[in-house]
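SUBJECT: A protein chain and its fold
Encoding: whole-number codes for local backbone shapes
RECORD BEGINS BELOW THIS LINE
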Amino acid sequence: MSKYHLEHAKYSKWLKSHTFENCKLDRKEYGHFIADYISGEKDGFVLNINGAWGSGKTEFLKRLYTLFINKRTPTIYINAWESDFSKDPLTVVTSELLEQLSLFNENIGEDLKTVKSLLGRVIKGSFYGAAGFTTHKLLGDATIGSDLAKELLNDESSIKFIDELKGSYLVQTSAISEIRIQLGQLAEVLGNTREAQLPVIVLVDELDRCRPDYAIEMLEVIKHFFHTKNFVFIIATDTKQLSNSMNAVYGNKFDSIKYLRRFFDREATLPKPDIEHYLDIKNFSLEEANSSPNITIAPGLVTDNAQTLQKYVSYFIRAYDLEIRDLDQILAKLESCLRSIISTGERDKSPQLIDFLCC
């Protein structure tokens, strides 16, 4: 039986740096719930994890990656935004899937050969389709004379091209249906001969940061090509933001929320983080300011009571419905202000008053 190499996974560095044991947002229980929730999905499944911008979706997915890899579950992570410059999501998903599966599975090359060949046919066909689309656009261009357009269409080479395009389309559609079968069989090979725990998990991150047209194409690729037996896709999005982006492109009358639902079998909402737990781990303190003879802190925090400080901050975060990324920015700005105030007091020997709530 071939060995399953955890240490060869593309993001093996996360296995130590990103676990639910060191999760600052205290989402361990929810992470295990998601893992158990999708463990029985064997017939193709797409889960949307919905979370607002800055709510910690990426950190959550990285920890899911670690959790699944340690369970001996073949897991792929794709940052959609990093490939946003590309015009072909199919190539992106295909490359990541094949590369990452081969990395932590010994001698899997032969099993991937058929899938590579089929996907190659589809990608080749998409280039023909793009060429056909370009021709259509050129023929509609007012700068090209109608006589020239007719000549292009009547030319034997053009007729040959149309025949090739037609043939490529038939090959492509046949390959698509076969891809699903082969991917399902590949997953079974991983489970039967390589000690892997199915289903194969594909984590897709940062989709809501992509161009709306690219995001839609990515979802189409996942649904049409890879929605197959023994594969589960977990896609993290700010669903509201993604739908707003689509409306900006397709108009306010476009029902983007309903449209997005056609791509997802189910939706889960990332729970709000435990602010007090997060602040406790961040270990934010006014101790340095309190120890300075030129600094006076108001109101009521002169003893630097950590619980009192956390209480003020947590009230503020909840009152304005802020996310973790907002909190990080606020604490970073506050620390910068404190350093400046302390430095000024020491340099000028002048009294400094800090109103924490105003900061």
In short: The chain has two domains: 6-269, 275-355. Residues 127-153, 165-169 have pLDDT under 50 and may be disordered. The longest helix spans residues 156-193.
